[in-house]
Each structure stands twice: as structure tokens, then as C-alpha cells.
Amino acid sequence: MQFPISAEWLQQEAAKRGVNATPAQVRTTFEQQKKQAFPKEADYQTFLQRSGRTEQDLLFQVKLSVLTNQLQAKVVQGKANVSQAQIAAYYAKNRQRFAQPESRDLLVVLTKTQAKAQQALTQLQHHKAWKDVVKTFSIDTASKAQGGKLPGVTKGTQEKAFDTAIFSAKQGQLKGPVKTQFGYYVFQVTKITPASQQSLAQASDTIRNLLKSQAQQKALNDFVKDFQKSYRDKTDCAKGFVTSQCSNGPNPQTSATPQPGQPQGAPPTSGGAPSGAPSGAPPSSGGVPGGAPSGAPSGAPSGAPPGASGSGP
């Protein structure tokens, strides 16, 4: 019962908001997904036979998917406006997020014993190539595979004794052996990249995208919460057909939080509900390809740039 109830909720909300899925839109979307999932018509026909579905079932699912996408767009419409004052406030509060610490590129040899490390150091002091010394002595497989290169090391990321030695060394100096819990290091700093701080101007586009994303997601979350309550309150189910979506049914489970935009009791994302369209599962698998579209919009596009996500403004 979850699927037909949620499908009805979605269609009523779409009609209320003037959202429509035309037969042409539905057919075009269906054909695109069908072609991707089942390149051969025979495979598609086999799927229909084994699943017990008809093409009309699948077209209805696609219609719900189209309505969901359009309804999502309607909900987040106008939520993309972010002022320069909001950007500046976020930057001031989260300035450290737009900073890059000093980093150092290294050449390293790691050995089990101090004697081996000393031998490696001696050969390097006599100008033997790093790649040859690394190949002979190093037990660190990761850097060894790169000829001893260990790029982009920042303070606090290495074992304490090694970290201290790295950030007290001058560029080009051969240093070591340095005793650590992993063995003995001999190393050379080949490049120092100074710490940097993005300015407000440089960070503005990143922050704007993040705040836009957060505003859209909040709008969707608020909508989903109201959507669930409103439609549940006016859904009265006959005896024998009662679910948690019914006003006369058990309270919805609160232990499992729905994904953003997926209301409690929305069409299931797996199992017996018809797929929004074939998703490519091989017909021979016996499984149901894909999942039903949610009865409400899915989450807003994040737009959050790497390294700038996290807590709100």
C-alpha cells in the first residue's frame, strides 16, 4: 500500500502546484532509460515476463519520476539568491577553511636499521641517484614505487620525530637517519610550498555555491516535513489496508531517518514496487531493476565545493 498511497500524494501535490508530466515527456524519458537498460528488445520483453509488469506500469513510474523532478525544481525555485553580506559573514566565520598550510615535497629512504640508513646516506652524499638508493634500501613500498618521492607533506601528518625533522630542515639538505617507530628515515626536502590564504574575492564563488546549496536543501527538507504530515493527516485507510502513512495507522517509525526528499512511506526504493524505469539489472538476475521514484523531491543538488562543505553559515 505504500506505493499507491505515495503516488497519490505526489500527484495531488503536483496538481496543486501546477506541475505536469506530459505524455511526450514521459515517453521520451522512458525510451531513453529503456535503451540504456536494455539495448536488446528481447531482454526488455524477458524482463516484463519475469517481473509480471506491463509497459503501462513502467510508464506510470516514469511519470512519477518526472513529476518528482519538476516538483523539486518548483520547491527550490528562488532559493538561489545569496547576498554578498552572507558570503562575507560565512568567510569571516570559516576563514580557516580557505587556508592551505605549508607543504613540503620530499625524497625519502626508510630502512629497518640505523646501519642501513647510514649506508643509504653515505651513498647519497656521494651523489648516487636517489632512485637507485631507494631501490636498494627502502622498505616503504609507497614511496619506493615513486623513486622515493613523498609529495605534499603538511605539518602534523607524519610520526612526531620525522615531522619535526622535516619542518626544521632546509631545502636541498640531506638529513637523517631519523629514528621512528617505523624504522630510520633519510630524507631531503626538494620543494617548500608556503602557506596560503584565499581572499574573500577568491573564495566568493565557492561560498556562494555552498550557501545556495544549503538554502535549497533546507527548502526541500522543510517541504518534505510538511508534505508528510499534511498528506498523512488526510489519508484514511480501510481496515486491512492500514500503513504508517494512514492517519488511522501506527505512528511512522522515527528511528530511521528518510533520505532528504524521501518522505516516510514514499514508494519503496527497492523491492516489489515497479521501477521508475528499467535501470539495467540483467533480466536473468531475477531481481527487480531499480527502484520507485520517491513520492517527494529528492535532495537538492549539493553544489558544495570540495573542502568547503560541513556546518552551515
Report on the structure:
The chain has two domains: 2-85 and 200-285, no CATH class; 102-194, Roll (Chitinase A, domain 3), CATH 3.10.50.40. 44% of the residues lie in helices and 12% in strands. It has helices at 2-16, 23-37, 41-51, 55-76, 84-93, 114-125, 130-137, 141-144, 160-166, 200-233; strands at 99-100, 103-111, 149-154, 174-180, 183-193, 196-197. The strands form two sheets. It has a four-stranded antiparallel β-sheet with strand order 3-2-5-4. The relative contact order is 0.18.
List the SSEs and their pairings:
Blueprint (H helix, E strand, L loop, with lengths): L1 H15 L6 H15 L3 H11 L3 H22 L7 H10 L5 E2 L2 E9 L2 H12 L4 H8 L3 H4 L4 E6 L5 H7 L7 E7 L2 E11 L2 E2 L2 H34 L80
Antiparallel strand pairs: 1-6, 2-3, 2-5, 4-5
Helix pairs in contact: 1-4, 2-4, 5-10, 6-7
